[in-house]
Amino acid sequence: MRHLIDFGDLSRAEWDSLYHRCSEIMDHPADFLDACKGRVMASLFYEPSTRTNFSFQTAMLRVGGTVFGFADPRSSSVAKGETLKDTVKMVSGYADVVVMRNPLEGAAKAASLYSNVPVINAGDGGHMHPTQTTADLTTITRLRGGVDGLSVGLCGDLKNGRTVHSLIKAMAKFQGVKFFLISPRELAVPEYMRAFMRENGMWFTEVTGLESVIPSLDVLYMTRIQRERFVDPLEYERNKGVYILTRRKLERARRDLLVMHPLPRVDEISIDVDDDPRAVYFEQARYGMFARMALLTDLANQPRMDPGAVEIGTVPVCRNPRCVTQAEHYLPPLVKQNGGLTCCAYCDAALE
Ligand code: NCD
Fold first, then answer.
1. Smallest Cα–Cα separation from 100: which of 71, 127, 121, 85?
2. pTM for the model
3. What topology is assigned to 131-281 in CATH?
């Protein structure tokens, strides 16, 4: 693995070895205090973040590395109109690893084309968030012993929720996972995710009601309605508060259910659930730090590499208004195949 842009970039063997490293770190943190000694992480956050930004920073500090970057692009040259390419080329000259969150879908993939050091996608718009998935899989594996054969309910904004998309991608690497996709119809998973699940022979069902499926679940993964991704504010108003998990709704759930949430929560899990032993979302955030420590000990220690010349694009081929190619016109027009569809290689949107 050179970059982590999409969880699909990781083979099952690579995930298993990352988890193994993560377990060693959790069990023997003192053995890893210098694992990234002398290494520097750049943290480029073009979009708000608490957990991901803090957990990456604390992860790097706990393995002996140092950190620089911005949490608000208004304080960087981005505000002067600098392209993503120029920012990344320059930053990758200073750092050993670049962690980037950006509101444009495919931004981390675009950055990786120009970087001399590994790029880690810390969230690209409503597209993907693979390091949240390392937190999620670590939580499930640590608390349940494994992921194979589980029934997983994903509930909320499955259209714009990037953590959901990355988790589904990851689950393709395990055996016999069943997905209950719980969302209002207008917030169902994007077509490229459906195509991905079909292509990988994954079992899934799409429903609108939460209560009827709760008794069948081993994991219930709640998500926030992603207000900042809505073009139409009325669509947000129609869907906010649609799912609220309460203590009463959990009465019919399995006793060993895991209630997960990438956080931040708004109102989709009521506070009276927090003290239920099945609620593991705060532990999940802590597991995320250990997973990022494991990731950084690998990626921050890789040799620098010249990415080579990149073709210069002229007009975007992708019509998704939130795709990075709509804003950064020099990007090469890359495409890929996904479940029989020709898709944009940056944001996965199907090309007509
Ligand atoms: C998520 C994100 O940013 O996508 N948060 C996180 O990284 N833990 C989920 C969200 O914002 O709803």
1. 121
2. 0.96
3. Rossmann fold (3.40.50)
